[in-house]
Design brief:
Blueprint lengths: L1 H12 L12 E5 L7 H5 L4 E6 L4 E5 L17 E6 L17 H11 L10 H36 L3 H4 L19 H8 L1 H21 L32 H34 L3 H27 L14 H22 L16 H29 L13 H28 L17 H35 L15 H14 L5 H28 L10 H32 L3 H14 L15 H19 L3 E6 L1 H11 L3 H4 L2 E6 L3 H8 L1 H4 L1 H10 L2 E7 L19 E5 L27 H15 L16
Parallel strand pairs: 1-4, 1-5, 5-6, 6-7, 7-8
Antiparallel strand pairs: 2-3, 3-4
Helix pairs in contact: 3-4, 3-12, 4-6, 4-7, 4-8, 4-9, 4-11, 4-12, 6-10, 7-8, 8-9, 8-10, 9-10, 11-12, 11-15, 12-13, 12-15, 12-16, 13-14, 13-15, 13-16, 18-19
């Protein structure tokens, strides 16, 4: 009877529904610095494009192309995909010219290096304003250097000197001896102004083009009721929806910096014309027009400064608003002022001849003083923010230079700008005057401004300081190697034969890798010396200009000879520095080893959005992070699945940034595997506001799981340094490197010291990967407090 009733009940309820098909898990691989191919990442020569383009794309093995239709085939292993972003930071050798924009990139870095003080602290706004003003001064410095090269040295000095222009046929139509229509001083410098004008136009075009190509990727929509429930000012910076979409701020800064460049050219032209009219005692309409135009240029410059000060990033939501008419019209107003200034300067003035140096070249001293004051202001503001961070318990004391590294890096940006501009001016002056020395008695031209010569004189002293620290670094390597060497054999099988040379080589690699942690000391020392020597150069140039005839009066012959030698050597070092940057940039895109050597510094610099300087190199992360976020969000939404995102080196930073951009529901379904990761070692120390301990701890708390692999021989990657009460440490290491000390049956040849590369060859990597994938295979996230689960940090 019971069985009949059960059968009837079952018939009434209908047949049981089949169990739901479990969707496969996804493993998303992200490569690091230097790039690679999807075939190498996936270990298969046959790959297919899943989504993306020639710049950045997601690939999958050809056999996995229809994995979603065959979920039963992927119960043990997930579907593997590779995200290749190497074309975002590499390309043809022409991109080496981007190294000319290095000072702009360094200034932009200083914006993101502010201490991890509470977001409501008023010092944040002051810090950002000071960095933006310093970035604006670098644009003015670059355009002023272009004016110095074209207007002063070429059109004013060399074209106006028969001894200098002789033998230069390309300068014949500008020579006063030819008596041509363009031989007057005013018209010569107007023609020469085309060079800085083209430079400003090129920077504007490059900034606009690179933003459209790399940085206009919109973030994915978020589920309501997740991270939007948290007030914007309380969200970690990298979780804000508008962090990787700064459309409006870049456009506003581009307009302001373009206007500043155009106004710098107009000021150079007007200063020469107004100075002549004043000295000649000319009155009437021409003189009045000059002063009116100069006033107009100053008013537009004041408006430009106001726009820069009021241009703050809006990260709470993607900023799609257009700029106001005043901001969009500012470059056109500056261009109109420049055209009127050119007409005024080109007006015929009988008796006008070019003299010593172009009037207004003393502005270089003013720019140097302004930059020094801005750096000191940054230093004080950073100290206040760091004190506030300590009061509120933010940070663990590992911030570089005790939180003052932002001001130090900003000073380095100014120094790089001075080397590039001074080197270009010094080398051109040496080429124009033939075998003579510019500025010396009997020389055909006066040469660059006195300040550039003083800056060249102090450069050898700075180089001596750098060499001294290099020697100290060598001593440190030797001491650490001797300390570590006795412990190396104990890390391996005791049955292996001892080899002192092998142990010394491994210990030396560990010692050299540890120099990365000493970088803040070198940066701080160089910045202190640079600030002192820069102040001395400005003071010396001012005294020389005030009393040029008594500059060397009473100076011993030995001191005078040493100063002349330092100036000459510094001039050559400046020029060599410009040439070296170009060669390194060219080799970085041609030679893989050079790319790996300088790639990490370049990729760290171009990782951040252009928040302070619109002419900095483009931010590849504003394309890569939305790409990864979209892929993870659409996978979990369409397949109701879970995934592991695996990142090496800089790829681990992109992976973490992309996970931060997910909503909380999706983020809880993602596990993170990082190896050779600079997240804490570089980003946590140098960018504590975004990658500090609180931010990384919050990321760990909100995602499914996280494991990090690291080696002592790795100069870039390191531990994350997060521990959780009641749960495992996310750091697994240090891993043995090399895998075998000597020759064994498993390693008949000496095992290679891998350092930063090939983490996948270590068995620990595969064990960790299998552990994360097994957790995903359960289909449900582990609860807090469950054995093996990630505990609340």
């Amino acid at each position: 009877m019971n069985s009949g009733s059960d059968t009837a009940a079952a018939t009434a309820e209908g047949p049981k529904a089949p169990p739901p098909r479990r969707q496969p898990a996804l493993e998303l691989l992200v490569h690091g610095v230097g790039g690679t191919t999807p075939e190498k990442m996936l270990g298969d020569p046959r790959t297919v494009l899943v989504t993306g383009d020639d710049t950045a794309a997601v690939y999958r093995r050809a056999v996995d192309a229809d994995a979603e239709q065959r979920p039963d085939d992927y119960r043990a292993e997930p579907v593997r995909e590779a995200y290749c972003w190497c074309n975002l930071t590499s390309g043809n050798g022409a991109r080496a010219l981007w190294l000319v924009l290095l000072p702009f990139m360094v200034a932009n870095l200083a914006h993101w290096m502010r201490p991890a003080a509470p977001s409501r602290h008023k010092g944040h706004r002051l810090y950002d304003i000071l960095v933006r003003l310093l970035a604006l001064s670098l644009t003015v410095l670059l355009v002023a250097a272009a004016c110095e090269v074209a207007l002063d040295l070429t059109a004013w000095q060399c074209a106006g000197s028969a001894a200098c222009s002789a033998g230069k046929s390309w300068m014949g139509f500008l020579s006063p001896g030819q008596g041509g229509a363009w031989s007057g001083p005013g018209r010569r410098i107007v023609i020469a102004a085309l060079f800085p004008l083209l430079l400003v136009g090129f920077l504007w075009w490059l900034s606009r083009r690179t933003w459209s190509a790399y940085e206009s990727a919109s973030p994915p929509p978020r589920r309501p009721g997740t991270s939007r429930d948290v007030p914007p000012d309380q969200r970690p910076a990298l979780t804000r929806p508008g962090f990787w979409y700064g459309r409006r701020v870049v456009a506003r800064l581009r307009a302001a910096h373009t206007a500043a460049g155009l106004l710098t050219i107009a000021a150079a032209l007007l200063t020469a014309a107004v100075d002549h009219d004043r000295r000649a005692g000319a009155g009437g309409f021409l003189s009045a027009a000059g002063w009116v135009l100069l006033t107009l240029v100053l008013l537009l410059a004041a408006v430009t400064v106001c726009v820069v000060c009021r241009t703050a990033r809006s990260e709470a939501e993607p900023d799609e608003h257009r700029d106001r008419f005043l901001v969009r019209a500012l470059p056109f107003a500056a261009l109109g002022a420049l055209l009127l200034s050119a007409v005024h300067t080109a007006w015929a003035r009988p008796g006008w001849t070019s003299g010593n140096r172009l009037p207004g070249t003393g502005a270089f001293g003013g720019i140097a003083v302004l930059q020094g004051l801005l750096v000191l202001g940054l230093l004080g503001t950073a100290a206040l923010l760091q004190a506030a961070a300590r009061r509120h318990g933010h940070g663990d004391g590992r911030a570089a230079l005790k939180g003052l590294h932002g001001a130090a890096v900003a000073l380095l940006g100014c120094a790089l700008g001075g080397v590039l501009t001074g080197g270009a001016a010094q080398r051109l002056a040496d080429w124009l005057d033939g075998g003579s020395t510019p500025g010396r008695p009997g020389a055909p031209i006066a040469g660059p401004p006195v300040l550039l010569s003083w800056q060249a004189s102090v450069l050898p002293v700075l180089l001596v300081v750098v060499v001294a620290f290099a020697l100290l670094a060598g001593v440190q390597i030797l001491l650490v190697r001797r300390k570590v060497e006795p412990d190396i054999p104990g890390l391996y099988d005791k049955q292996e034969r001892p080899d002192e040379q092998r142990a010394r080589r491994i210990a030396g690699t560990i010692a050299r890798a540890g120099l990365t942690d000493s970088a803040p000391v070198l940066v701080g020392a160089v910045c202190v010396v640079t600030l002192v020597l820069g102040a001395g150069a400005v003071a010396g140039a001012w005294l020389t200009d005030r009393a040029p005839g008594r500059a060397t009066e009473g100076t011993p012959v030995l001191v005078h000879t040493a100063a002349a030698t330092a100036e000459s050597l510094g001039s050559w070092l400046m020029g060599a520095g410009v040439l070296l940057l170009a060669i390194m940039g060219w080799r970085a895109y041609r030679d893989r080893s050079t790319r790996r050597t300088i790639g990490i510094l370049w990729d760290v610099g171009t990782f951040w959005p252009r928040a302070a300087h619109p002419f900095a190199p483009p931010c590849y992360a504003e394309r890569a992070v939305p790409d990864l976020t979209w892929r993870m969000a659409t996978w979990t939404e369409n397949n109701d699945g879970r995934l592991v995102i695996s990142g090496h080196s800089q790829g681990s930073v992109l992976a973490a940034a992309a996970v931060w951009q997910l909503d909380l529901v999706t983020r809880s379904r993602v596990a993170l595997l990082t190896y050779g990761s600079p997240l804490e070692r570089l980003y946590g120390r140098w960018f504590p506001a975004c990658f500090g301990p609180e931010a990384l701890t919050g990321l760990h708390r909100e995602m499914d799981d996280w494991r990090n692999l690291w080696r002592l021989t790795d100069p870039i990657g390191g531990p994350i340094r997060l521990t959780c009460d009641g749960g495992p440490d996310i750091d697994l290491g240090p891993m043995r490197d090399p895998l075998a000390f000597g020759r064994t049956l498993q390693h008949p040849l000496p095992a290679q010291i891998l350092g930063h590369g090939d983490y996948q060859s270590d068995p620990v990597f595969e064990e960790t990967r299998a552990e994360l994938i097994a957790r995903l295979g359960s289909g449900l996230p582990r609860q807090r407090g469950e054995p093996g689960a990630t505990a609340l940090c």
